[in-house]
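Lecture notes, unit on protein representations.

Consider one protein chain, 143 amino acids long.
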Amino acid sequence: MAILSAENIVLNQQIGSKEEAIRTTGQLLVDRGYVEPAYIEKMLEREQLATTYMGNFVAIPHGTDDAKSAVKESGIAIIQVPAGVSFDGNEVKLLIGIAGKGDEHLEILSQIAIVCSEEENVLQIVNASTKEEIIAMFDEVND
């Protein structure tokens, strides 16, 4: 799995719209060298096809299938939005951006799903005051 490191986590963000949320998440993936800037547009395109809101205050913005060429390496980015941002009326407090090389995104998604299937885990991540607390939540899944 793509390693989750502290520089891939942004705490306490204020985000005003779904589009801003997706762009911010995509930019973090770009800044960390996982994807080309064109991937962000593919993330927005993907959102038009079907929402990336997953329930339990979580959205997982990612590119369309044809965005694979814009992925340099698999990566994950997490943005904490304690005040929430609306994804078509659904409140999102945790944005998890993913980019997967080949089929690696499936493995990344399954690990995210394990952690985020429990609302209490999501709220623990949303309320975490350090990046290390968030990393520990995902490390438990890998043990």
